[in-house]
Write a structure and sequence with these properties.
- The structure is a homodimer.
- In chain A, about 45% of the residues lie in helices and about 15% in strands.
- Chain A has about 350 residues and is an alpha/beta fold.
- The first copy, chain A, has 2 domains: about 70-175 and about 310-335, 3-Layer(aba) Sandwich (Rossmann fold); about 175-310, Response regulator (Rossmann fold, 3-Layer(aba) Sandwich), CATH 3.40.50.2300.
- The first copy, chain A, has a 6-stranded parallel β-sheet with strand order 2-1-3-4-5-11, sandwiched between helices. In chain A, strands 7-6-8-9-10-12 form a 6-stranded mixed β-sheet, with helices on both faces.
- In chain A, helix 2 crosses helix 3 (about 30-35) and helix 7 packs parallel to helix 8 (about 145-155).
- The first copy, chain A, is elongated.
- At the A-B interface, helix 1, helix 5, helix 6, strand 2 and helix 7 of A face helix 1, helix 5, helix 6, strand 2 and helix 7 of B.
- The first copy, chain A, binds a DNA duplex (30 and 30 nucleotides) through helix 3 and helix 5.
DNA sequence: GCATCGTTGGAAACCGGTGTCAGTCTAGGC
DNA sequence: GCCTAGACTGACACCGGTTTCCAACGATGC
C-alpha cells in the first residue's frame, strides 16, 4: 500500500512558499522572480525591490532540489578521504566549510578504504548516483591517478591535496614537504646530532618519498653517511611509530634523534622511548610532521613541522567552487609552505 | 550573457540515460520503470526482468535530485555538532556512515559555534534551505532544547546523542555516564585512594553534571568526605585540563588521584604532573573518559571509561532513517553502556 | 510618422522523477 | 456466456525551479 505517512510532526509543518506564491503576490511571473534570485542584470530596479519585499515577507527560500534538477548540477561538494588522522580530516572539513561559508554549497563526506578492491567501484557508484558539483581528494588517496581519472570520466570536477606535483594547478593544492623536512633535519644537525633516524611513510606514497627526499638532502648536505637501516618504514599510525622506533633504538649505535613523517608516529616514538626508560629530549630528540593537536598535547610537547592544512583545504574548496568565468578558482594559490615549530622534544645529544 | 560553459571535460561526459530512455528501450511507460526502481509489488516478473535488463545495459542510475523533488524529501542526513574533540566527531561520522551504508542517504556535516548568538539563525537557515531528511545532534549542542524545538518546527526529524535523558526514546541515544563514572571512581577507592580530585566539564552541561553525580555517589558510598575545592571545572580541552590539574595539585593535601571528565583533560593532567616532576601513576593516578585515540597514545596509556560512541552513532542514524512503517527505528537501542578500560595510569597511592 | 532597437515580462516547455486514476487483461463465480 | 474482482500497466498532472521564445513597450534614428 505504501501509504504516505503523515506523522503529526510533518503535518504541523506549514507548506513552504514556492516561487509561484512569490510571483502571484508580487504580481509578476515566475521568470521575473527567478531573475531576482539569480541577480540577473536585465531587471527594473523597482520590480526587483517589490519582489524582494515579497520574498522577505514570505520567508521564501528556493528549493535546492528543484534548482539542482533544472540546472543539472547540484550544490554538493564531496570530501573523499582515507586519512587515518582524525585531526587532519577535521581540519580539512573546517577549511572547506570556511570557504563554503555564505555559499549555497554543502559538504558531503565520504571515507573510503584504500585497500579494498571495491574502492573504485564504490566511488564510481557514489559519484554517478549523486552527481556532485565536485570532490576534494585528501592524501593519501589523492595520489591515486586512477581515481582522478575516474572523476574526470564521470564529469566531476576535483581538486587534489598533496605533497608534490600530482596534477596541473587547476586540480591541485600542494605543500613543500621536501623543503620543510630538509629544514627540520638540518635543525637536528645544527643541534649536534649525527646519528639521525628516519621513520618514513608507506612505500608508494608521494608524501612519504617527498619527505624522505628532504631528509636525505639535508643529511647529504651535512656530509653525514648514514647506515641504510637508519631509515625505517611506518604506515602513519601510532602503533607503527612504536614498532619502527623500537627497530631503530635496537641498533648499535642507536640514533640520538628521530624524524618521524607524521605526528602520530612521532608520538609512538616518544611512547617507545619512555617504555625503554629513555627520556625525551635528554636521551632522544624527536621531530614530527603535521602539527596536529597531538603534537602539543603529549609530553614533552613535540617539535614538528606545521602543515598549513586548513588554508590548503580552504584554497582547494575555492578552486572548486570559484566562478570559472572569472577564473577566480585559478587564482587561488596552489602551493603552501610548511615551517618548523620548535617545542621541547629536541635537545643537543648527550656528550 | 551568462552563456553555459561547455568545457571540454563536461562536453566529454555522455548524457546520462534517464528514466525515459529506459522506458522507451524496454517498451514500457516511465511509471513502470519507476515501479521497478521502487520495488513495487504489483509488477509482472517478466516485465520487471525486461526493464532490469535494460537498466543494466544502459547503466541507468536514477537522478536523486529529481526523486527528491518529486518525493518532497531528499536523502541527506545532517550532522550538527560543536564537539571540540576531533576523534569523537570522526567516530560519530564513521558510525553514521556504517548505518547509511547501502542506503541512498548521504551525510552532510555542519559544525556550529555554540557561543555565537547567530548559531540558531544559522541552523535555521541551513535546515530551511536544505530541507534535510533528518539531523543528528552531537553533544554538547545536543543538550540545547531550543535547537531540538527548532528542528521540530521546521519539520526536520532529529536524534540527539547525549549522556542523560534529554528527550523521548525516539529522539535520543544516550549512555549511562553516571554509573560508569561511579564504577571508575570506586576503582580508585579500591586501589586505596582517599584523596581523589575531580575535573568536571563546564557548568550547564548534562554530561558534566551526570559525571559529577556518579563521582559524588561513589565518594559518598565509600564514606569519604572531600573538601569542596577537590572539584575543579574544566571545559573539555587539553589546556583547561592543565589549569585545573595545577589548581588541584597546589592544594595541601593534594589529591593522589584525579578523575577527569574526558580524555583530553586527562592528558592535560598527565602533562601538568610531568611539568611538576610528578610521575604517573607513581605519584598521581589519572582516569579519563571517552577512550579516544589519545588515551592509548600518551604515556602512560590512560585508564579511561570507554564510551561506545560508534555504536551509539550507528544506532542514532538507524533511528533516523529506519522505516517508520516497520517501527524499525524505534527498536534501535536508546541506551548504551560505558565501561572501564584499565591501562597504566592508575596505581595504589604511595604509602 | 515609421522602422529599428534594447529592455522588460510572460507563456509554455523542460529537467527527471512520482502520484493519481482510469483502462486493459485475465481468471473465476454464477 | 456474462459479470466482476483483481492484477497489471499507462496517460497525465505535478514537484519547483530554469530556459527558450516571443510580445509589448518606450526610446531612438531617419
Amino acid at each position: 500500500m505504501a501509504e504516505q505517512d503523515r506523522s503529526s510532526s510533518s503535518a504541523k509543518r506549514a507548506a513552504k512558499p514556492t516561487i509561484n506564491d512569490v510571483a502571484r503576490l508580487a504580481g509578476v511571473s515566475k521568470k521575473t522572480v527567478s531573475r531576482v534570485i539569480n541577480r540577473s542584470a536585465l531587471l527594473n530596479s523597482e520590480t526587483r525591490e517589490r519582489v524582494e519585499r515579497v520574498i522577505d515577507e514570505l520567508g521564501y527560500v528556493p528549493n535546492p532540489q528543484a534548482r539542482a534538477l533544472a540546472l543539472r548540477r547540484n550544490f554538493l561538494i564531496g570530501l573523499i578521504h582515507d586519512n587515518p588522522n582524525a585531526q587532519t580530516v577535521l581540519n580539512v572539513q573546517q577549511g572547506i566549510l570556511e570557504a563554503l561559508q555564505g555559499t549555497e554549497f554543502e559538504l558531503v563526506v565520504r571515507p573510503v578504504d584504500r585497500r579494498s578492491p571495491l574502492m573504485l567501484e564504490d566511488v564510481r557508484a557514489f559519484l554517478s548516483r549523486q552527481r556532485l558539483f565536485g570532490v576534494m581528494l585528501l592524501p593519501p588517496i589523492s595520489e591515486n591517478d586512477v581515481l582522478a581519472a575516474l572523476c574526470d570520466e564521470l564529469g566531476c570536477r576535483y581538486v587534489r591535496m598533496g605533497s608534490a606535483e600530482l596534477d596541473d594547478p587547476d586540480h591541485l593544492v600542494a605543500s613543500n614537504d621536501r623543503e620543510a623536512v630538509r629544514e627540520a633535519t638540518t635543525y637536528l644537525v645544527d643541534q649536534g646530532h649525527r646519528l639521525i633516524g628516519l621513520i618514513e611513510g608507506p612505500r608508494g606514497f608521494r608524501s612519504a618519498s617527498e619527505r624522505r627526499a628532504g631528509f636525505e638532502q639535508a643529511i647529504e648536505a651535512a656530509g653525514i653517511e648514514l647506515p641504510r637501516n637508519f631509515i625505517a618504514e611506518g604506515n602513519y599510525t601510532f602503533e607503527s611509530g612504536i614498532q619502527a622506533a623500537n627497530r631503530l633504538l635496537d641498533l648499535a649505535p642507536a640514533p640520538t634523534a628521530i624524524f618521524a613523517s607524521n605526528d602520530e608516529m612521532a608520538a609512538g616514538v616518544v611512547h617507545a622511548a619512555n617504555q625503554r626508560g629513555l627520556s625525551v629530549p635528554e636521551n632522544l630528540s624527536v621531530i614530527g610532521f603535521d602539527d596536529t593537536a597531538i603534537a602539543a598535547h603529549i609530553w614533552p610537547p613535540l617539535t614538528t613541522v606545521r602543515w598549513p592544512i586548513i588554508p590548503m583545504a580552504r584554497s582547494a574548496a575555492l578552486k572548486l567552487v570559484g566562478n570559472p568565468a572569472e577564473r577566480k578558482g585559478a587564482s587561488e594559490p596552489s602551493l603552501f609552505l610548511s615551517s618548523l615549530v620548535r617545542r621541547a622534544s629536541v635537545a643537543p645529544p648527550r656528550g
